[in-house]
Design brief:
Layout (H helix, E strand, L loop, with lengths): L2 H14 L1 H13 L9 H8 L2 E7 L2 E8 L6 E4 L13 H6 L4 E4 L14 H15 L4 E5 L1 H11 L7 E4 L5 H11 L4 H14 L6 H4 L13 E6 L7 H10 L4 E6 L11 H12 L5
Parallel strand pairs: 3-4, 3-5, 5-6, 6-7, 7-8
Antiparallel strand pairs: 1-2, 2-4
Helix pairs in contact: 1-2, 2-8, 5-6
Length: 282
């Protein structure tokens, strides 16, 4: 169903049954509409990975590891993406002597399940840390940044943090979703209500699930990378994250890469690799 048609139907239903329209919108909000496939340019890197199945709360999660050794770099992909999105980083990190660990979130890639919330992914990251960690660093993209910060505030240990195309405000997800589909305010309100109910007994989720929440709990050296031409997550999010973590974060801005091509940019990969291999004395 095309987005304009979907928007029109949801808006029409909301006039007579706002809660029904809200329920349909919420399902679209938390469940990926498609699973990203491994692109030909990514296949060779993915074929070189040691692939394992992890049973997490009854859901089979695919994990991928490149290189041996302790304290791997954990890569956390974004919504409607998969571990293969990090294929450009793996050779550079491997050449630098850093083992890499990645996974397809539930509902994504080759993993089972239908969706993975911030809470689900934080628990999964904690599980991976128990088996592979503590992590030398966590590198996350987009929605994965929210998951990574929530995981670290919940006890996951990482020596460094890299936030690429970060969403700095959890509420932005709901607002951007409704704006993209041109949904009526009544649906937006219902979507928020259902989101709050879904996460019970968690409270204050719009603040607590944001990476900017209680910055004093995450004090590791941080690199924030954002493209000034990002249409999906405006650059103000990257600026805000760097501002909140001003004592520990550096901000790198790029141009012309957008939200996803930034992951394949050679200069970005080199910058991130240098940051991950930097010693505390440098």
């Amino acid at each position: 169903m095309a987005a304009p048609s979907l928007s029109s139907r949801l808006n029409a239903v909301s006039y007579v049954a706002p809660r029904l329209a809200g329920r349909a919108a919420f399902k679209l909000f938390i469940e990926p509409v498609r699973r990203a496939e491994v692109r030909p340019a990514q296949q060779q890197v993915m074929d070189a990975a040691a692939v394992s199945d992890l049973d997490h709360d009854g859901v089979t999660v695919k994990t991928y590891r490149w290189g041996d050794g302790s304290r791997p770099v954990l890569m956390v992909h974004g919504f409607q993406s998969r571990a293969a999105s990090w294929a450009g980083f793996v050779p550079a990190l491997h050449e630098a002597g850093l083992p890499v660990l990645a996974y397809d979130a539930p509902g994504h890639g080759d993993s089972g399940g239908v969706s993975a919330t911030i809470v689900d992914q934080a628990a999964l990251i904690a599980r991976l840390q128990k088996e592979h960690g503590p992590f030398r660093a966590i590198v996350a993209h987009s929605f994965g940044v929210l998951c990574a910060y929530h995981a670290m505030r919940s006890g996951v240990q990482a020596g460094r943090m890299v936030a690429i195309s970060a969403i700095s405000d959890f509420a932005y997800l709901a607002d951007a979703f409704c704006t993209q589909l041109s949904l009526r305010p009544s649906i937006s309100r219902e979507l928020r209500r259902r989101t709050e109910i879904y996460f019970r007994p968690e409270t204050d989720i719009w603040e607590r699930f944001s990476p900017t929440y209680r910055p004093g709990q995450v004090t590791v050296p941080t690199l924030v990378v954002h493209d000034e031409d990002d249409k999906e997550v405006p650059v103000r999010h990257g600026r805000r994250l760097a501002e909140v973590y001003a004592t520990s974060a550096d901000l790198v801005l790029t141009q012309g890469l957008g939200h996803r091509r930034i992951l394949g940019d050679r200069a970005v990969i080199e910058t991130v690799t240098r940051f991950l291999t930097k010693t505390d004395e440098q």
